[in-house]
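As described in the Methods, two query proteins were run sequentially through the folding procedure within a single session, without resetting any intermediate state between them. The first query and its resulting structure tokens are shown here.
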Amino acid sequence: MSVPNTPAGSDSPAVALGPTSLVLGAFSALGAWVPPLAFLTLPLATIAGALAVTFGAAGIHCARRGVGGRLWTATAGTVLGATGLTGTLTLLWAFGA
């Protein structure tokens, strides 16, 4: 017996916004606040932080409207992304780049 690979009718792409934001936010926060990683991943951590905030805000919006999505993961990803983005921008400002 084969299982169909098609998504259910209730699945929405908005379901992936929260976990994506959480992963990007965690990368950004670690890349900004762990000193050995900060110098290696500074440009990528900045981009990941901005994307985490963007995807997290969209995930929060979709979860509150009931379209689909996970509110807590989107919120956590937004907070981690903002923390990482603030850290990387502070490092860039401090080094005068």
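Immediately afterward, the second query was submitted; its sequence and tokens are:
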Amino acid sequence: MSFEQHLAKVKDNLIAREEIEEESRRLDAAVVLMRAREEAGLSQEQLASLSHISRSTINRIEKARISPSIRTLDALAQAMGKRASVIIS
């Protein structure tokens, strides 16, 4: 069964839909952080030093294992000379 087929099957299951949406948010944060860090030319270790966020936390965000808080995203963005923003859609 493909992911799309599975998604169609569980779309009416509220718990499954919420879990999929949370995973999607973690993946979005992972991709955005990794791209921004790489564009800034920083390693995880360098970003950790600049942001005062541990390298292990940065690694867990980039691997979509945790959802970062807005405070964490803001510290990471500032360390890269950027601004964090939130979009509600």
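Helices lie at 3-10, 14-39, 44-51, 55-62, 70-79. We note this only descriptively and draw no conclusion about the first query from it.
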